[in-house]
Design brief:
Number of domains: 2
CATH topology of the largest domain: Beta-galactosidase, Chain A, domain 5
CATH class of the largest domain: Mainly Beta
Shape: globular
């Protein structure tokens, strides 16, 4: 198929040009792309056997472009690429020349990208909706079922395990101030419903090599009875970042997180919970660079590594996980606010930046 042209028509199809200057209202634009056509249509190169009176009339009432181009001159790949670009348009980024952070607006503005500005390599793992950096809380068992497992009240910022999204209620990006603010109604992780009794807000800022995340949650549902470990928040990173560091008795040490048993393979015992006296943690690659997370006032943590099928990278099934945790019960009227810091680099870089915050 050869695409030599497409037709672009504005509201002028129905509205005379003379009326444009008389209104401040935004115009609706209609874009018509003719696929699976050569340039046989009348008004273009034409062909004696191609009689196209309707396509003759349309350009007379709109605008005709004869130097337009498509991504790929084959219908299938071109359509796929258009769909991919549409999906990418749901992402918003902040980039200050040092670090780059991105949120997915189709998933409640969850954070799904964090990396250096220069390399643009994403160190987060977003294999599924549960691995985004986001707010998520736990309540009592409520009769729901997660893939065959009895589950509990579990509002999550991005959406449920079957990729049904949360509701993004407001979103504002101030690129000049390197700031994003959003409000989300979360989705129940294991059910087909929104959690209308909870509101989640977040504010993201960049300051040098550090991303500052302010999380806010308001709960107005029924009282729960059981105190639960709450992730503040859960951090899933590229499975290639295997080396885990934390502060044990005021000494920076390397731990060996437990490895989950998956896909018929046995797991491996290791560090599952602990306490970091300085409340920050880091995962590094074998090359000595990686990512650090610091939630002030939250020294307790849980961690593990998942081997998955062995694939690493942002969308690989392998990941490394850590979550600073606090323990509390969801009660009607509960309001929670906390701050998280993220940074990148060597262990020395991470340590110096977090120490500068105290």
């Amino acid at each position: 198929m050869k695409w030599s042209a497409f037709l672009l028509f504005a509201a002028s199809v129905f509205l005379p040009h003379s009326q444009w200057a008389k209104t401040d209202e935004k115009l609706n634009l209609i874009q018509i792309i003719c696929g699976d056509l050569n340039d046989y249509a009348e008004g273009f190169d034409g062909h004696p056997n191609a009689i196209t009176p309707n396509l003759v009339r349309l350009p007379k009432r709109g605008v005709r472009f004869t130097q337009a181009h498509c991504n790929i001159p084959i219908c299938g790949p071109d359509t796929l690429l258009c769909a991919e670009q549409k999906a990418k348009s749901k992402w918003s980024y902040l980039d200050n020349g040092r670090v780059r952070i991105g949120v997915d607006r189709s998933r409640g503005a969850c954070i799904g990208f964090f990396g250096e500005s220069q390399s643009k390599r994403n160190l987060l793992n977003v294999y599924d909706a549960g691995r985004y950096l986001q707010q998520s809380y736990y309540g009592d068992k409520d009769g729901t079922n997660w893939n065959g497992k009895p589950w509990r009240y579990n509002p999550i910022q991005g959406g449920n395990w079957q990729n049904k999204p949360a509701r993004l209620d407001s979103f504002q990006l101030e690129a000049g101030d390197f700031q994003i603010e959003s409000t989300t109604t979360p989705h129940h992780w294991a059910a087909n419903r929104l959690c209308e009794d909870m509101v989640m807000k977040q504010k993201i800022r960049l300051d040098g090599h550090v991303a500052i995340l302010d999380f806010n949650m308001k709960y107005d549902g029924d009282d729960h009875q059981e105190a639960r470990h709450q992730e503040m928040p859960a951090l899933f990173v590229d499975g290639a970042l295997k080396r885990f560091f934390y502060w044990k008795d005021d000494k920076l040490v390397e731990g060996a997180p437990r490895i989950l048993g998956e896909n018929g393979k046995a797991g491996k015992k290791g560090l599952g919970t602990g306490r970091s006296s300085k409340a920050w943690f880091a995962y590094l690659s074998e090359h000595g660079k990686g990512i650090g997370i610091y939630t002030p006032g939250t020294p307790d943590f849980t961690c593990y590594r998942a081997a998955g099928n062995g694939s690493t990278g942002p969308e690989g099934s392998a990941c490394s996980y850590v979550a600073p945790i606090r323990t509390f019960t969801l009660k009607k009227g509960l309001t929670l606010e906390y701050r998280v810091h993220l940074t990148l680099g060597t262990l020395q870089d991470i340590q110096s930046r977090f120490e500068a915050l105290d």
